[in-house]
Amino acid sequence: MSAQKDLNVGIIGCGMIGTDHLRTLTEAVSGSRVWAVSDADPARAAQAVEQVDPTIKIHTDPHALISDPDIDAVLVASTEETHEQFVLACLAAAKPVLCEKPLAPTAEACLRVVEAEAQVGRKLVQIGYMRRFDPSYVEMKRVLDSGQLGEALFLHAVHRNAGYPDRYESDALITATGVHDIDIARWLLGDEIVSVTTRNPKPSALVRDGFQDPQFLILETAGGVIVDVEIFVNAHYGYDVRCELVAERGTVSLVPPTTASIRHSGVDGHPVLADARPRFAAAFRDELQAWVNAATNKQVCGANAWDGYAAAAVAEACLESFGNHTRTDVRLAPRPSLYTEDDK
């Protein structure tokens, strides 16, 4: 019996996350190889492959990468305004695609992808919500699904960053940061979010005028669970993601990862991580391995196109609430039958 052929992957986008994925697929994921990359800046693409594997092919046209007959599956890590066109092109080529979040910049654009995939008649799209593969979140969901704690009542989430990019506007706290907590709440609870309320606390005096940081989201699920999310992207002290699930007979919480206990200058404590990459390194690796395994077997795992659309719709409701300071309903289109099946 012959060995199964490795999955040939093409990567669109060689920025920080694209290059990280290139390195992880090459060094830590089995059953695949990066065949080609493409980037809007050819010099950046050349630098990325030179760092990892100079034999990797470089396409100057991302659509040529998608249509390359040697490419079996595509990873989209380009700027978010390009996601829709590249994912639609992958659907037209019937190639599995892992798209970094968001699926598209608007819920309307995400819905176009959902409808296109429904027309294809099989799932090909996975969204890069890597927290679904983080061991601590996976364990939290296992405990909840086991029934030992009873029904979920509350979910408390915190997302803090040491600092934020200059390009960030107030909306990005929801659409680029809080959307991870939106997706993980839907996944953990197995329920849609039906209404949201965004509260604007006193802004930090350490951010520029007009920038609303922090923000506080209150999400309500169809089953009545209340989810609160603190988003603080200029917390200064480091990267800190927390989550506590409160159920009828107990709670389950994330345990912050620690590498060492340091005593110095009168302080006994643990170092705080600088950003998401070390905190979720295992999640990124496991996400890519799961995607490769699923694509090889003509399946999809993780967040699908409907999940990408639903998260975008919730985020847009949060933005509406941010503007009018009221409880806002989440408006979702009818779910195509393709997405009513249990994911493999």
Question: How would you describe this structure in keywords?
Answer:
344 residues, alpha/beta, 2 domains, seven-stranded mixed sheet
Question: Can you give a write-up of this model?
Answer:
This protein has 344 residues and is α/β, with parallel strands linked by helices. It folds into two domains: 145 residues, NAD(P)-binding Rossmann-like Domain (Rossmann fold, 3-Layer(aba) Sandwich); 168 residues, 2-Layer Sandwich (Dihydrodipicolinate Reductase, domain 2). It has ten helices and 16 strands. The strands form three sheets. It has a seven-stranded mixed β-sheet with strand order 3-2-1-4-5-6-15, sandwiched between helices. A seven-stranded mixed β-sheet has the order 12-11-7-10-9-8-16. Helix 4 packs parallel to helix 5. The model has no long low-confidence stretch (mean pLDDT 94).
